[in-house]
Amino acid sequence: MKSRYVFILILILVSFTSRASDSIGWGHSVGLDLRPAYPFSSYKDDILSGILDSGNARETKIATSIHLQYGFSFPRDSRQGRLCPDAWQGIGTSVTFLGNPKGIGTPVSLYAFHGAPVWHFTDRLSLYYEWNFGASFGWRPCNGEISYSNLIVGSRVNAYINLGAGISCRLGDRWSLMAGLDLTHYSNGNTSFPNPGVNMAGLRVGIVRSLGRSRADIMHVKEVSNLAMTTDSTSKRRPEFDLTVYGSLRKRVYRGGDTPILLNGRFAVAGLDFAPMWRITKNFRAGASADFQWDESTDLKRHHVAGATSDDILFTRPGFFSQLCVGLSGRAELVMPVFSVNLGIGYNVIGPKETRASYQLANLKVRITDALFLNIGYQLLNFQKQNNLMLGLGYTFR
């Protein structure tokens, strides 16, 4: 039944692109991908063995995803087209088969995607990258009891993040073959337990049908500058200042005693980042950031009520500044039409002892106007411990 719906959707999209017009310079494409992969957990944590029965998990050895995508490219004379005339973006959907539908489920993802060629080898052969970001539905959360359960998925809805790179080969006027490597991450952002996260590493192979000035054309035009060599002739290297505010909710495992304790409820997180950024090229910015974050679940060990049991654990409320941490980070950002990807590495210099560590940030910025943007991000500690989501708004002062 699912395959029938996918086939009908392919016919609709192909019919749409066949009748579309590029008289105003827009390009359209529809693509179908197959992505076999090896799945593995992001990390192993002793809290799983302390709280859940690890003997009740069945390991998943292989996964396969089928993706259907509709993409478009901006007119070359538009503001977005001038920023990167050979980029494409759009929406996609996928079904992932993990081989354990009773224990993990068969997730369906809905996502936005963006891609561009990095280097043109010939007029028919190009190196490209593409990322996907969205939500996945249909997971079966862990219950720690039945034999086909899992210890890696704690919620029915998880974020979906994907990065791929490969070679595009033009087969004709309207068709291109895409093949390369693929990395995928599923996570609930530490909003539910457990959440080691699911990673998948594998291959991708797909076919793209294009109309007019679309993906098949922009990938293989020698006149288009390679992304790494594109300079910003209008920029005078003046700084731009990004101010971002965000918030989220998270789960917390308390480690104050011999046995880790999963605390009830969810805890609030709020933050503010101020980042001076310099535009190095038309599509790349770099700079530094002062990062402030308040986490309601930090510094609990010093406020644990003596004598409280694990079944009825109690804390006194910490002061605001005892749960505030301040860090400094370096930032790098890929700037493309509509979307920007901002990555950072920093260290918390002020805050509770448990936060005095390196942290890593990944942010997706969705431009609403030239200055205002939505921010969807995630933070890790010490390159492995999942910390919290970063959902908010930002503004660029020039």
Write a concise synopsis of the structure shown:
With 398 residues, the chain is mainly beta. The chain has helices at residues 2-19, 46-51, 79-83, 215-218, and strands at 27-41, 63-73, 88-97, 105-120, 125-139, 157-170, 175-187, 198-211, 239-250, 253-254, 261-262, 267-281, 284-295, 324-335, 339-350, 358-367, 372-381, 385-397.
Fold and architecture overview:
With 398 residues, the protein is mainly beta. 8% of the residues lie in helices and 52% in strands. The chain has helices at 2-19, 46-51, 79-83, 215-218, and strands at 27-41, 63-73, 88-97, 105-120, 125-139, 157-170, 175-187, 198-211, 239-250, 253-254, 261-262, 267-281, 284-295, 324-335, 339-350, 358-367, 372-381, 385-397. The strands form three sheets. It has an eight-stranded antiparallel β-barrel with strand order 1-2-3-4-5-6-7-8. An eight-stranded antiparallel beta barrel has the order 9-12-13-14-15-16-17-18. A hairpin with a 4-residue loop joins strand 4 and strand 5 (125-139). It is flat, with a radius of gyration of 23 Å. The N and C termini lie far apart (53 Å). Residues 11-23 have low confidence and may be disordered.
Q: Secondary-structure blueprint of this entry?
A:
Layout: H1 2-19, E1 27-41, H2 46-51, E2 63-73, H3 79-83, E3 88-97, E4 105-120, E5 125-139, E6 157-170, E7 175-187, E8 198-211, H4 215-218, E9 239-250, E10 253-254, E11 261-262, E12 267-281, E13 284-295, E14 324-335, E15 339-350, E16 358-367, E17 372-381, E18 385-397
Antiparallel strand pairs: 1-2, 1-8, 2-3, 3-4, 4-5, 5-6, 6-7, 7-8, 9-12, 9-18, 10-11, 12-13, 13-14, 14-15, 15-16, 16-17, 17-18
